[in-house]
Amino acid sequence: MALSICSGLLQRYSLFESLSNLQRVVPAVSRLVVKGTQRRFKVIPKAPEPPRRVNLQDLRKWKVEGRKIVMITAYDYPSAVHADLAEIDVVLVGDSVAMVALGHDTTQKVTLTDMIHHCRAVVNGCKRPLIVGDLPFGSYEVSPEQAMSSAYRLIKEGSVDAVKLEGGKKIAETVHRIVQGGIAVMGHVGLTPASVSAIGGFRSFGRNCKEAKDILEDAFALQEAGAFAVVLECVPQVVAKHITELLHIPTIGIGAGKYTSGQVLVYHDMCGMLQHPHHAKVTPKFCKKYAQVGEAIQEALENYRDEVRNGEFPSETYSPYHMPKEEYEQFLQEIQTSPYLKPQQVMSHLDVHLYGK
């Protein structure tokens, strides 16, 4: 009796194992035999996985591997989408928006509220890149408490992944407090555009021993404070190379040569779009233009202007909406009997080309 029961159980187990193998071989339809009947179950296709966002561990890993980090600025939804499609690693919503998008003379004019507005637009367009938002001038210098409040606003209201601050040793304590508060911080040394009024204009830094040493000390102070990366702007290539080799966090260069852990350019500059004249004084020295978008835009606008003035646009191709003939005749009668028709106006003719068949 016991042997018969065991034999039956083994047969059932073999049947279910065979069915399981069949389901693996033919995933589209699984079959289950129950009391001589056959039932079919469709396997629901799995939804595609969303792209995984770049994180700080990726940046650390790439630093060790020597894989270059690609960073670009973006200030609105269209530029963010382009950066996302190009598989850019890091997108910076920079305070440079003040100059290249809002037309100010310096980056000092942009406010925290402005930055939050632009950060939201960029976040809507980016799914893969790590998104960093600049804390603008005047939003973090007063005290660590002010800086933390501003950083929390940029994270919560702007939805960015990290914040960036300009400065070195002087703001190290502030960076430490922000990091301890749970916010990732990117540093920025060398040329710090937000301090343009104090440093006497846009210029390179680190071309003498003292300045080079100061930049090195600033970068180390930021690393010790907990920054996950540091931007090196407008410094000699040899200085950037040694700083990159000495730090264990990634360096992102802009006008700092090819030996940094990665590079960043301003979106409008590298696309060859129209630049603010003050900004153009510095950026062309190190910015390669990968396109001449500004020229194409200017040509398009001028062509549009000319075609509107000479009546070419819109042509029939771009006038797709038509009214049935009988409806048009009725509408014409309404006009002729309306109070809007002046005595000297005659509208008895039928504009055949304006209605559909």
UniProtKB/TrEMBL annotation:
Pathway involvement of the protein, from the record: Cofactor biosynthesis; (R)-pantothenate biosynthesis; (R)-pantoate from 3-methyl-2-oxobutanoate: step 1/2
Source superkingdom: Eukaryota
Transferase is among the record's keywords: yes
Keyword Chloroplast: no
Keywords: Transferase
Annotated EC: 2.1.2.11
One record GO biological process: pantothenate biosynthetic process
An example Gene Ontology CC term for this record: mitochondrion
Reaction equations catalysed: (6R)-5,10-methylene-5,6,7,8-tetrahydrofolate + 3-methyl-2-oxobutanoate + H2O = 2-dehydropantoate + (6S)-5,6,7,8-tetrahydrofolate
Enzyme's top EC category: transferase
GO function terms (MF aspect): 3-methyl-2-oxobutanoate hydroxymethyltransferase activity; magnesium ion binding
Name of a matching Pfam family: Pantoate_transf
InterPro entries, per database record: Pantoate_hydroxy_MeTrfase, Pyrv/PenolPyrv_kinase-like_dom, Pyrv_kinase-like_dom_sf
Family of this protein: Belongs to the PanB family.
Record's protein name: 3-methyl-2-oxobutanoate hydroxymethyltransferase
Lineage: Eukaryota, Rhodophyta, Bangiophyceae, Galdieriales, Galdieriaceae
